Amino acid sequence: MNWIRKTLFTLHVIVGIGGLAGGYGCLSDIYNPLGAPLSLLENSPFTSYFFPGLFLLFIIGLGNIVCSILVLRYPIVGMMGSLALGIALSAWIVIQCIILQDIVALHIIFLVVGLVQTGLSLWQLIQSGDLAYLLRELIN
Fold it and tell me: Tens-digit pLDDT profile for the chain (140 aa)?
């Protein structure tokens, strides 16, 4: 196993645990999770933290945990999952910053992690030739 897969495995486990914890926190108290007041959602389409909690729990949390296993056992599928989840995490953070109209250190850290996941998985797919193969199969 190369260093890219080891790095992605580690990042997926860390992000997955964080997503599970954050999602659980949002779903256990949908109006004041983890001390976040409901007023933070004033500029959002949400009236509670229920839907953001579901996204955190299932996509960011469980998605990254499952992908960590895929990276180890099924490298091509794992790399495609890493690419998708890296993009999802990056988009989640950017959208969150827009809605909250604020940027804190944790946003920057997780944006960088999402971009690293995206970059490493894309690089691995390109280097291995799997991306070219998958694109050819998609077109045909």
Answer: 799 999 999 999 999 999 999 999 999 999 999 888 999 998 899 999 999 999 999 999 999 999 999 999 999 999 999 999 999 999 999 999 999 899 999 999 999 999 999 999 999 999 999 888 888 888 98
Other C-beta atoms closer than 10 Å to the C-beta of 82 total: 31
Q: Which uninterrupted H or E stretch holds 96?
A: helix 75-100
CB-based contact 33:49 (threshold 8 Å): yes
- Centre a 10 Å sphere on the Cβ of residue 93 and count the other Cβ atoms it contains: 21
Distance CA 86, CA 71 (A): 13
CB crowding 51-74: b at 16 or more within 10 Å, else e: ebbebbbebbbebbbebbebbeee
Distance of CA 84 to the CA centre of its chain: 8
CB atoms within 10 A of CB 83: 21
